[in-house]
Amino acid sequence: MQVKIKTYKKKRKTRRIHLLLFIFLSFSLFIILTFLHKEKPLLEEEKDAQQQEVSFVLPPLEEKKEVIRRGMTLTDILKPYNLSTAEIHALIKDVKPVYDLAKIRAGQELRIFSSPQGDFFSLEYDINEENYLHIKKKEGTYGAEIKKTPYDIRIKAIWGIIKENLIFAVRDKNEGVILALNLAELFAWDIDFYADLRRGDSFKIIFEKKYLNGEFVGYENILAAEFVNQGKKSLAFHYTYPDTKSSDYFDLEGGSLRKQFLKSPIRYSRITSRFSRRRLHPIRKVYRPHYGVDYAASVGTSVQVTADGTVTFAGRRGASGRMISVRHKNRYETMYLHLRGYAAGVRKGKKVKGGQEIGYVGSSGESTGPHLDYRIKKDGRYINPLLFNPEPVKPLRAEFLDDFKKKAGSYSLCFEAPQIIFSCFSNFFIP
Protein backbone atom coordinates (compact mmCIF):
# COMPACT_ATOMS: atom_id res chain seq x y z
CA MET A 1 0.00 0.00 0.00
CA GLN A 2 2.79 2.41 0.83
CA VAL A 3 4.57 1.59 -2.46
CA LYS A 4 1.53 2.50 -4.57
CA ILE A 5 1.17 5.86 -2.88
CA LYS A 6 4.81 6.73 -3.54
CA THR A 7 4.49 5.74 -7.19
CA TYR A 8 1.41 7.94 -7.63
CA LYS A 9 3.15 10.91 -6.03
CA LYS A 10 6.20 10.44 -8.21
CA LYS A 11 4.11 10.39 -11.41
CA ARG A 12 2.26 13.58 -10.41
CA LYS A 13 5.57 15.36 -9.75
CA THR A 14 6.91 14.29 -13.17
CA ARG A 15 3.79 15.66 -14.91
CA ARG A 16 4.21 19.04 -13.14
CA ILE A 17 7.83 19.30 -14.33
CA HIS A 18 6.78 18.54 -17.91
CA LEU A 19 4.05 21.18 -17.75
CA LEU A 20 6.44 23.86 -16.48
CA LEU A 21 8.98 22.92 -19.12
CA PHE A 22 6.30 23.22 -21.83
CA ILE A 23 5.25 26.68 -20.61
CA PHE A 24 8.88 27.86 -20.48
CA LEU A 25 9.64 26.60 -24.00
CA SER A 26 6.44 28.15 -25.38
CA PHE A 27 7.22 31.54 -23.84
CA SER A 28 10.82 31.38 -25.14
CA LEU A 29 9.58 30.56 -28.64
CA PHE A 30 7.15 33.54 -28.50
CA ILE A 31 9.96 35.91 -27.54
CA ILE A 32 12.25 34.62 -30.29
CA LEU A 33 9.55 34.87 -32.96
CA THR A 34 8.65 38.39 -31.88
CA PHE A 35 12.29 39.47 -32.04
CA LEU A 36 12.75 37.88 -35.45
CA HIS A 37 9.62 39.62 -36.72
CA LYS A 38 10.93 43.02 -35.59
CA GLU A 39 14.34 42.51 -37.09
CA LYS A 40 13.16 41.06 -40.41
CA PRO A 41 14.99 42.47 -43.48
CA LEU A 42 13.45 45.47 -45.23
CA LEU A 43 11.85 44.93 -48.59
CA GLU A 44 13.58 46.61 -51.52
CA GLU A 45 10.79 49.20 -51.76
CA GLU A 46 11.13 50.02 -48.07
CA LYS A 47 14.90 50.35 -48.42
CA ASP A 48 14.51 52.83 -51.27
CA ALA A 49 11.96 54.90 -49.34
CA GLN A 50 14.18 55.00 -46.28
CA GLN A 51 17.21 56.01 -48.31
CA GLN A 52 15.24 58.77 -50.01
CA GLU A 53 14.01 60.00 -46.65
CA VAL A 54 17.51 60.11 -45.20
CA SER A 55 19.07 61.73 -48.24
CA PHE A 56 16.51 64.62 -48.35
CA VAL A 57 18.64 67.04 -46.31
CA LEU A 58 19.00 70.61 -47.55
CA PRO A 59 22.57 71.63 -48.29
CA PRO A 60 23.84 74.75 -46.53
CA LEU A 61 22.64 77.94 -48.23
CA GLU A 62 24.89 80.78 -49.25
CA GLU A 63 23.79 84.34 -48.46
CA LYS A 64 24.75 87.33 -50.59
CA LYS A 65 23.76 90.96 -50.09
CA GLU A 66 22.94 92.82 -53.29
CA VAL A 67 22.68 96.62 -53.26
CA ILE A 68 20.49 97.95 -56.04
CA ARG A 69 22.38 100.48 -58.14
CA ARG A 70 20.77 103.17 -60.25
CA GLY A 71 19.53 101.75 -63.56
CA MET A 72 19.50 98.13 -62.33
CA THR A 73 16.40 95.94 -62.54
CA LEU A 74 15.36 92.90 -60.55
CA THR A 75 16.13 90.83 -63.64
CA ASP A 76 19.73 92.11 -63.62
CA ILE A 77 20.08 91.05 -59.99
CA LEU A 78 18.43 87.62 -60.15
CA LYS A 79 19.70 86.28 -63.51
CA PRO A 80 23.08 85.20 -62.05
CA TYR A 81 21.11 82.86 -59.75
CA ASN A 82 20.08 80.60 -62.66
CA LEU A 83 16.65 82.16 -63.14
CA SER A 84 15.36 82.85 -66.63
CA THR A 85 13.66 86.11 -67.57
CA ALA A 86 10.32 84.26 -67.64
CA GLU A 87 10.92 82.87 -64.14
CA ILE A 88 11.79 86.32 -62.80
CA HIS A 89 8.61 87.78 -64.32
CA ALA A 90 6.66 84.92 -62.73
CA LEU A 91 8.28 85.72 -59.37
CA ILE A 92 7.29 89.39 -59.62
CA LYS A 93 3.72 88.40 -60.56
CA ASP A 94 3.36 85.80 -57.77
CA VAL A 95 4.68 88.21 -55.13
CA LYS A 96 2.65 91.28 -56.18
CA PRO A 97 -0.48 90.46 -54.10
CA VAL A 98 1.75 90.55 -51.01
CA TYR A 99 4.20 93.29 -52.00
CA ASP A 100 4.86 95.21 -55.20
CA LEU A 101 8.56 94.79 -55.98
CA ALA A 102 8.39 97.90 -58.17
CA LYS A 103 8.57 99.88 -54.90
CA ILE A 104 12.19 98.84 -54.40
CA ARG A 105 14.52 101.75 -55.17
CA ALA A 106 18.22 102.27 -55.91
CA GLY A 107 20.38 102.14 -52.81
CA GLN A 108 18.23 99.53 -51.08
CA GLU A 109 19.54 96.07 -50.23
CA LEU A 110 18.36 92.55 -51.02
CA ARG A 111 19.52 89.41 -49.23
CA ILE A 112 19.60 86.47 -51.65
CA PHE A 113 20.02 82.84 -50.54
CA SER A 114 21.23 80.23 -53.02
CA SER A 115 22.43 76.64 -53.17
CA PRO A 116 26.16 75.85 -53.39
CA GLN A 117 25.59 75.49 -57.16
CA GLY A 118 24.28 79.06 -57.30
CA ASP A 119 20.58 78.24 -57.78
CA PHE A 120 18.07 80.71 -56.36
CA PHE A 121 16.40 79.55 -53.13
CA SER A 122 14.92 82.62 -51.38
CA LEU A 123 15.08 86.40 -51.10
CA GLU A 124 14.63 88.87 -48.24
CA TYR A 125 14.04 92.61 -48.36
CA ASP A 126 13.61 95.03 -45.45
CA ILE A 127 10.37 96.95 -46.05
CA ASN A 128 10.92 99.10 -42.97
CA GLU A 129 12.52 98.82 -39.53
CA GLU A 130 9.88 96.42 -38.23
CA ASN A 131 9.01 94.21 -41.23
CA TYR A 132 10.75 92.37 -44.04
CA LEU A 133 9.57 90.56 -47.17
CA HIS A 134 10.44 86.87 -47.50
CA ILE A 135 10.18 85.21 -50.96
CA LYS A 136 10.76 81.49 -51.44
CA LYS A 137 10.56 79.20 -54.44
CA LYS A 138 8.30 76.19 -53.92
CA GLU A 139 6.65 73.70 -56.27
CA GLY A 140 7.13 75.78 -59.39
CA THR A 141 5.74 78.99 -57.91
CA TYR A 142 6.99 81.71 -55.57
CA GLY A 143 5.48 82.21 -52.15
CA ALA A 144 5.82 85.51 -50.30
CA GLU A 145 5.02 86.73 -46.82
CA ILE A 146 5.77 89.77 -44.71
CA LYS A 147 7.52 88.85 -41.46
CA LYS A 148 8.50 90.70 -38.33
CA THR A 149 12.19 91.59 -38.16
CA PRO A 150 13.66 89.27 -35.47
CA TYR A 151 15.23 91.86 -33.22
CA ASP A 152 16.86 90.90 -29.95
CA ILE A 153 15.66 93.38 -27.30
CA ARG A 154 17.97 93.79 -24.31
CA ILE A 155 17.47 95.94 -21.24
CA LYS A 156 20.12 98.25 -19.83
CA ALA A 157 20.22 100.84 -17.07
CA ILE A 158 22.44 103.90 -16.64
CA TRP A 159 22.81 106.42 -13.83
CA GLY A 160 24.32 109.86 -14.55
CA ILE A 161 24.99 113.39 -13.28
CA ILE A 162 24.80 116.57 -15.36
CA LYS A 163 28.10 118.45 -15.60
CA GLU A 164 27.60 120.42 -18.83
CA ASN A 165 24.45 119.19 -20.56
CA LEU A 166 22.30 116.10 -20.93
CA ILE A 167 23.85 114.89 -24.19
CA PHE A 168 27.38 114.93 -22.74
CA ALA A 169 26.18 113.17 -19.58
CA VAL A 170 24.58 110.35 -21.58
CA ARG A 171 27.64 110.07 -23.83
CA ASP A 172 29.78 109.70 -20.70
CA LYS A 173 27.83 106.49 -20.10
CA ASN A 174 28.70 105.24 -23.61
CA GLU A 175 25.21 105.81 -24.98
CA GLY A 176 24.05 107.83 -27.97
CA VAL A 177 22.51 111.24 -28.58
CA ILE A 178 19.17 109.65 -29.52
CA LEU A 179 18.76 108.26 -26.00
CA ALA A 180 19.43 111.73 -24.54
CA LEU A 181 16.85 113.30 -26.87
CA ASN A 182 14.32 110.58 -26.03
CA LEU A 183 14.79 111.28 -22.33
CA ALA A 184 14.42 115.03 -22.88
CA GLU A 185 11.25 114.45 -24.89
CA LEU A 186 9.86 112.26 -22.12
CA PHE A 187 10.05 115.07 -19.56
CA ALA A 188 9.51 117.88 -22.09
CA TRP A 189 6.12 118.69 -20.55
CA ASP A 190 7.78 119.73 -17.27
CA ILE A 191 11.45 120.48 -17.93
CA ASP A 192 13.06 122.78 -20.47
CA PHE A 193 16.37 120.99 -20.90
CA TYR A 194 18.30 124.18 -21.50
CA ALA A 195 16.60 126.80 -19.37
CA ASP A 196 15.88 124.57 -16.36
CA LEU A 197 18.96 122.31 -16.29
CA ARG A 198 21.56 122.80 -13.54
CA ARG A 199 24.99 121.32 -12.84
CA GLY A 200 24.50 118.42 -10.42
CA ASP A 201 21.08 117.41 -11.74
CA SER A 202 20.90 113.62 -12.08
CA PHE A 203 19.10 110.93 -14.02
CA LYS A 204 18.44 107.20 -13.96
CA ILE A 205 17.18 105.38 -17.05
CA ILE A 206 16.06 101.79 -17.64
CA PHE A 207 15.72 101.31 -21.38
CA GLU A 208 15.63 98.83 -24.25
CA LYS A 209 18.38 98.39 -26.83
CA LYS A 210 17.62 96.73 -30.15
CA TYR A 211 20.04 94.25 -31.78
CA LEU A 212 19.98 92.42 -35.10
CA ASN A 213 22.40 89.56 -35.70
CA GLY A 214 24.34 90.68 -32.64
CA GLU A 215 24.77 94.29 -33.82
CA PHE A 216 23.20 97.29 -32.07
CA VAL A 217 20.70 98.97 -34.41
CA GLY A 218 18.81 101.43 -32.21
CA TYR A 219 16.91 102.25 -29.06
CA GLU A 220 13.42 101.03 -28.24
CA ASN A 221 11.32 102.15 -25.28
CA ILE A 222 12.54 103.91 -22.18
CA LEU A 223 10.87 101.63 -19.62
CA ALA A 224 11.38 103.89 -16.63
CA ALA A 225 13.22 107.12 -15.90
CA GLU A 226 13.99 109.35 -12.96
CA PHE A 227 15.22 112.92 -13.35
CA VAL A 228 16.19 115.20 -10.48
CA ASN A 229 16.11 118.83 -11.60
CA GLN A 230 17.02 121.54 -9.08
CA GLY A 231 16.18 119.10 -6.26
CA LYS A 232 12.77 118.14 -7.69
CA LYS A 233 12.39 114.47 -8.61
CA SER A 234 10.32 113.50 -11.66
CA LEU A 235 9.45 109.89 -12.50
CA ALA A 236 8.21 108.34 -15.72
CA PHE A 237 7.02 104.77 -16.28
CA HIS A 238 6.10 103.19 -19.61
CA TYR A 239 2.80 101.31 -19.71
CA THR A 240 1.01 99.48 -22.53
CA TYR A 241 -2.73 98.99 -22.18
CA PRO A 242 -3.51 95.24 -22.45
CA ASP A 243 -6.66 95.78 -24.50
CA THR A 244 -5.73 98.50 -27.02
CA LYS A 245 -1.94 97.89 -27.00
CA SER A 246 -1.43 101.68 -26.99
CA SER A 247 1.38 102.98 -24.79
CA ASP A 248 2.12 106.11 -22.81
CA TYR A 249 4.09 107.39 -19.83
CA PHE A 250 2.76 108.02 -16.33
CA ASP A 251 4.05 109.02 -12.92
CA LEU A 252 4.10 106.63 -9.95
CA GLU A 253 0.42 107.30 -9.15
CA GLY A 254 -0.78 106.84 -12.73
CA GLY A 255 -0.96 110.53 -13.59
CA SER A 256 -0.14 111.40 -17.20
CA LEU A 257 3.21 113.03 -17.93
CA ARG A 258 1.61 114.81 -20.84
CA LYS A 259 0.22 118.25 -20.32
CA GLN A 260 -1.73 120.51 -22.62
CA PHE A 261 1.50 122.32 -23.56
CA LEU A 262 5.12 121.30 -24.08
CA LYS A 263 7.64 123.25 -22.06
CA SER A 264 9.63 124.33 -25.13
CA PRO A 265 9.02 124.61 -28.91
CA ILE A 266 12.59 123.48 -29.70
CA ARG A 267 13.96 120.18 -28.49
CA TYR A 268 17.40 121.36 -27.52
CA SER A 269 18.49 124.98 -27.58
CA ARG A 270 19.65 127.82 -25.35
CA ILE A 271 17.74 130.86 -24.14
CA THR A 272 19.21 134.23 -25.10
CA SER A 273 16.41 136.49 -23.90
CA ARG A 274 13.61 135.97 -21.39
CA PHE A 275 10.12 137.35 -20.93
CA SER A 276 10.34 140.94 -19.67
CA ARG A 277 8.09 143.97 -19.20
CA ARG A 278 11.06 146.25 -19.93
CA ARG A 279 13.96 145.18 -22.14
CA LEU A 280 16.46 147.15 -24.22
CA HIS A 281 15.59 146.35 -27.83
CA PRO A 282 18.79 145.02 -29.50
CA ILE A 283 18.14 146.91 -32.77
CA ARG A 284 16.07 149.99 -31.88
CA LYS A 285 18.02 150.62 -28.65
CA VAL A 286 14.91 151.63 -26.72
CA TYR A 287 13.30 150.02 -23.70
CA ARG A 288 10.12 148.14 -24.47
CA PRO A 289 8.39 144.93 -23.30
CA HIS A 290 9.59 141.57 -24.61
CA TYR A 291 6.62 139.24 -24.36
CA GLY A 292 8.37 136.07 -25.41
CA VAL A 293 11.36 133.82 -24.81
CA ASP A 294 14.17 133.81 -27.39
CA TYR A 295 15.72 130.43 -28.19
CA ALA A 296 19.02 130.59 -30.09
CA ALA A 297 19.45 127.81 -32.65
CA SER A 298 21.02 127.28 -36.04
CA VAL A 299 19.09 128.22 -39.18
CA GLY A 300 16.74 125.42 -40.19
CA THR A 301 16.32 123.92 -36.71
CA SER A 302 12.89 122.29 -36.39
CA VAL A 303 10.22 124.23 -34.49
CA GLN A 304 7.38 122.21 -32.95
CA VAL A 305 3.96 123.47 -31.94
CA THR A 306 3.62 123.15 -28.16
CA ALA A 307 -0.01 121.94 -28.06
CA ASP A 308 -2.87 120.71 -30.22
CA GLY A 309 -4.59 123.54 -32.02
CA THR A 310 -5.52 125.30 -35.26
CA VAL A 311 -3.24 127.59 -37.26
CA THR A 312 -4.78 131.08 -37.38
CA PHE A 313 -1.92 132.82 -39.22
CA ALA A 314 1.14 131.77 -41.23
CA GLY A 315 2.97 134.55 -43.07
CA ARG A 316 5.02 137.74 -42.70
CA ARG A 317 4.08 140.35 -40.12
CA GLY A 318 6.31 143.43 -39.77
CA ALA A 319 9.13 143.19 -37.22
CA SER A 320 8.10 139.61 -36.37
CA GLY A 321 9.13 138.44 -39.84
CA ARG A 322 7.77 135.08 -40.89
CA MET A 323 5.60 133.81 -38.07
CA ILE A 324 2.89 131.33 -37.13
CA SER A 325 -0.01 131.80 -34.68
CA VAL A 326 -1.92 128.81 -33.31
CA ARG A 327 -5.19 128.85 -31.35
CA HIS A 328 -5.59 126.23 -28.59
CA LYS A 329 -8.43 125.15 -26.33
CA ASN A 330 -9.19 127.01 -23.08
CA ARG A 331 -8.56 130.35 -24.86
CA TYR A 332 -4.78 129.96 -25.27
CA GLU A 333 -2.73 131.14 -28.26
CA THR A 334 0.94 130.53 -29.12
CA MET A 335 3.17 132.43 -31.56
CA TYR A 336 6.42 131.50 -33.29
CA LEU A 337 8.41 134.46 -34.69
CA HIS A 338 11.42 135.14 -36.99
CA LEU A 339 11.08 131.85 -38.91
CA ARG A 340 12.98 130.96 -42.05
CA GLY A 341 10.00 129.08 -43.41
CA TYR A 342 7.06 126.78 -42.74
CA ALA A 343 6.68 123.00 -42.68
CA ALA A 344 4.78 121.41 -45.56
CA GLY A 345 1.03 121.93 -45.32
CA VAL A 346 1.13 124.53 -42.54
CA ARG A 347 -1.33 127.28 -43.43
CA LYS A 348 -4.30 129.12 -41.94
CA GLY A 349 -7.01 126.68 -40.83
CA LYS A 350 -4.63 123.69 -40.56
CA LYS A 351 -5.14 121.53 -37.45
CA VAL A 352 -1.87 120.58 -35.73
CA LYS A 353 -0.88 118.19 -32.94
CA GLY A 354 1.38 119.01 -29.99
CA GLY A 355 4.99 118.20 -30.90
CA GLN A 356 4.33 118.45 -34.65
CA GLU A 357 6.91 120.26 -36.77
CA ILE A 358 5.42 123.53 -38.05
CA GLY A 359 8.42 125.63 -39.13
CA TYR A 360 12.17 126.27 -39.06
CA VAL A 361 14.37 128.67 -37.14
CA GLY A 362 15.47 131.72 -39.11
CA SER A 363 16.30 135.40 -38.71
CA SER A 364 13.46 137.13 -40.57
CA GLY A 365 12.07 140.50 -39.45
CA GLU A 366 13.93 142.57 -36.86
CA SER A 367 16.51 140.06 -35.69
CA THR A 368 20.21 140.13 -34.85
CA GLY A 369 20.73 136.43 -35.62
CA PRO A 370 19.02 133.05 -35.99
CA HIS A 371 16.59 132.41 -33.13
CA LEU A 372 12.97 131.67 -32.30
CA ASP A 373 10.83 134.13 -30.36
CA TYR A 374 8.15 132.02 -28.62
CA ARG A 375 5.08 133.65 -27.06
CA ILE A 376 1.91 132.56 -25.24
CA LYS A 377 -1.36 134.42 -24.73
CA LYS A 378 -4.24 133.61 -22.38
CA ASP A 379 -7.49 135.48 -23.06
CA GLY A 380 -5.51 137.86 -25.27
CA ARG A 381 -2.91 138.73 -22.59
CA TYR A 382 0.74 137.67 -22.80
CA ILE A 383 2.00 135.30 -20.10
CA ASN A 384 5.55 134.20 -19.28
CA PRO A 385 6.21 130.85 -21.05
CA LEU A 386 8.85 129.90 -18.49
CA LEU A 387 6.41 130.28 -15.57
CA PHE A 388 3.48 128.70 -17.37
CA ASN A 389 2.28 125.49 -15.66
CA PRO A 390 -0.44 123.83 -17.78
CA GLU A 391 -2.83 121.15 -16.55
CA PRO A 392 -2.03 117.47 -17.27
CA VAL A 393 -4.17 115.46 -19.64
CA LYS A 394 -6.20 112.37 -18.69
CA PRO A 395 -4.57 109.97 -16.18
CA LEU A 396 -4.16 106.22 -16.61
CA ARG A 397 -7.45 104.34 -16.98
CA ALA A 398 -8.71 103.27 -13.56
CA GLU A 399 -9.24 99.58 -14.42
CA PHE A 400 -5.51 99.16 -15.12
CA LEU A 401 -4.17 101.17 -12.20
CA ASP A 402 -3.35 98.15 -9.99
CA ASP A 403 -1.47 96.41 -12.80
CA PHE A 404 0.42 99.61 -13.59
CA LYS A 405 1.39 100.28 -9.96
CA LYS A 406 2.74 96.75 -9.60
CA LYS A 407 5.02 97.20 -12.62
CA ALA A 408 5.99 100.78 -11.79
CA GLY A 409 6.77 99.72 -8.23
CA SER A 410 9.34 97.17 -9.43
CA TYR A 411 11.09 99.83 -11.54
CA SER A 412 11.02 102.27 -8.62
CA LEU A 413 12.60 99.64 -6.38
CA CYS A 414 15.43 99.26 -8.88
CA PHE A 415 16.01 103.03 -8.77
CA GLU A 416 16.22 102.98 -4.98
CA ALA A 417 18.45 99.89 -4.83
CA PRO A 418 20.49 99.67 -8.05
CA GLN A 419 22.43 96.68 -6.74
CA ILE A 420 19.34 94.51 -7.36
CA ILE A 421 18.94 95.62 -10.98
CA PHE A 422 20.06 92.17 -12.20
CA SER A 423 17.11 90.55 -10.43
CA CYS A 424 14.66 93.04 -11.93
CA PHE A 425 15.04 91.86 -15.52
CA SER A 426 15.92 88.49 -16.99
CA ASN A 427 17.56 90.07 -20.05
CA PHE A 428 19.45 92.87 -18.30
CA PHE A 429 23.00 93.10 -19.57
CA ILE A 430 26.25 95.02 -19.41
CA PRO A 431 27.75 95.39 -22.93
Plain-language structure description:
- The structure is a single chain.
- The chain is of the alpha+beta class.
- It has three domains: 62-148, Roll (Nuclear Transport Factor 2, Chain: A), CATH 3.10.450; 152-258 and 394-424, Nuclear Transport Factor 2, Chain: A (Roll); 270-383, Glucose Permease (Domain IIA).
- Helix content is 23%, strand content 35%.
- The chain contains eight helices and 22 strands.
- It has helices at 2-38, 44-55, 74-78, 85-95, 166-171, 177-186, 401-416, 421-424; strands at residues 62-67, 109-114, 120-126, 131-138, 141-148, 152-161, 202-212, 215-229, 232-240, 247-250, 270-273, 276-280, 287-290, 292-296, 302-304, 309-316, 322-328, 332-342, 351-352, 357-361, 371-378, 381-383.
- The longest helix has 37 residues, at 2-38.
- It is globular and about 80 Å long.
